[in-house]
């Protein structure tokens, strides 16, 4: 028997409980007591709830009989549960969970209803269920394979559209060991073992001809591995595209070695077949004279398809043809059905879809199909790259052809010039010797009989013959720059300059000239001709300084830049007028007025020697004296090794 104090305590707890509580008569189901929370739930004072039957506030479809049955069940078995919705005083529907418990109060059997508002709980559960369904639907339709493994390597889950590619049903391997299922794939086994050891990894794996990029992520709980979550993405197409691009890049290098238009066409069509897997490939060259495209290359499959023996037997694309119009449009164009063209060049050929790729102004590449189909965007991209590369190759071939033609013409002209110079100079030797001999005879036989004026004329004749002889010899030296040249070799310019100084030593000491040189990098050159360049520049610097009554000072320096060495020879002489900076290298040209003798051939020889070495020579503007610069090939590692 509870004490009065306990009764008061229970009453206080009953009233203070935040959840609604009702006490029902076990026989009738009527409410005999309700707390404040119960009154609030029904929107009336607790006193008004007392006497109500549970059926009066049950949800629609839940009758009084149903309510009595529940109370009877609880009174008999000790408990019962039900979940229903009820409408609160605010008109909002609430979902409640009712737990009915049998209790003996004051020696009377009662049924206590504990009511718990589960509206928010059920809402969260529904939301979670919906999200789970959405996530499951998402996973099932993602183009990947998602699977989990337990710490023993047993599949616990698998889903994703990627399973279709492998012919596997979702969940098919659940319960099976990955070490058994994929025992024939060592790379997969190795990756799984690393993941089960706690390592997060990304690997590329091949399964049955398919390539997957797979991510393994270990999951831990309190430091213990609970599972491995893995996602595998099918990258077979991506890898194939990467391989095509790489192979295309390597294949187009072949175009670097093509030397004719037909060779370019053969290479381009073969690349289209090999890389893009389009066997019906052919190429036409444009002739602007008659506005016609002429065939220059095709795959054997294309020739067979067109029922011709060779590519050159393909029909041309004349000014009135649709192909010619597409060429002049200048943009890549896909004709979905060739048979629908109004004026095709080969109407009898059963072509359907054709991709026309103009090669700038050089021609057109055509890729065809015997069926109506759409070109894959990636394949079309690669074909456009191929067409662009082919156009560049044709441009290079055209430029090389023109260059070779001009080079041949230049070589013929240069050879003729050398022959002319050599023959002319030799033919001049004999009359010059004759003039000199007879003038000498005249001077020796009749010199004493000549008056002063006649003697002066005789001296003029002797001097003219001598200067003519010097010019002939100079012309011979100029013409022999190529014919009497030596092989290029690693040359030490400092040693060459020292030898040149030794050869000029008497003249240097005579005029008290000073020649200084900095460190000079080695060059790949003809050492004798390098010596000629130094000698001509030093002689000019000394002679013109002496003529101007200046004590000669010459400085030689050099700088290496990439694959060339730039030499600088500067002096303190009278300099060269700016107007003569270009003409000073012309044969027999002498800048300014000079009293010193000379033929004007020295700088022309220097220029020809430097040009033979693929260098250049020029006069640098200077406020004091003359500054010459010239370039020669530097010694590279390859040439050094050779």
Automatic annotation (TrEMBL):
It comes from the Archaea. It comes from Haloarcula argentinensis. Residues 423-636 form the Histidine kinase domain. Residues 6-60, 131-182 form the PAS domain. The keyword Lipoprotein does not apply. This is histidine kinase. InterPro entries: GAF, GAF-like_dom_sf, HATPase_C_sf, HATPase_dom, His_kinase_dom, HisK_dim/P_dom, HisK_dim/P_sf, PAS. It catalyses: ATP + protein L-histidine = ADP + protein N-phospho-L-histidine. CDD domains: HisKA (cd00082), PAS (cd00130). The lineage of its organism: Archaea, Methanobacteriati, Methanobacteriota, Stenosarchaea group, Halobacteria. GO terms for molecular function: ATP binding. Residues 197-247 form the PAC domain. Keywords: ATP-binding, Kinase, Nucleotide-binding, Phosphoprotein, Transferase. Its EC number is 2.7.13.3. The keyword Transferase applies.
